[in-house]
Amino acid sequence: xxxxxxxxxxxxxxxxxxxxxxxxxxxxxxxxxxxxxxxxxxxxxxxxxxxxxxxxxxxxxxxxxxxxxxxxxxxxxxxxxxxxxxxxxxxxxxxxxxxxxxxxxxxxxxxxxxxxxxxxxxxxxxxxxxxxxxxxxxxxxxxx
Length: 144
Hints:
Layout: H1 2-27, H2 30-51, H3 72-90, H4 92-113, H5 125-142
């Protein structure tokens, strides 16, 4: 239940953040807005690290087995950029529909093939049907 609630909160925050970042971009620039987003996230993370007992050390990052996993931060900059541009071009609802469908599709493929150290899932026809229904929903929503 907690996982579902946190995921719902995450989705809501991502949608709101996309609108906020697009608004900041209109009055600055996309890279200034993206940089501020990443910098403010760094400040929040550092503060949270101090207030939660400083579990882990920064040097522990150098011991990560799969170094490519450290690219998540760099991906975050491009995620911020692409969300801002998507919201700017499509509007919040349409942009988030495409984002969510793509997230679900890629996440399922990662599970299905056991990529990046995840536990491999078995193919399930009901999940395929669910994905097709989700895509159909996007088509219906986008229909004019």
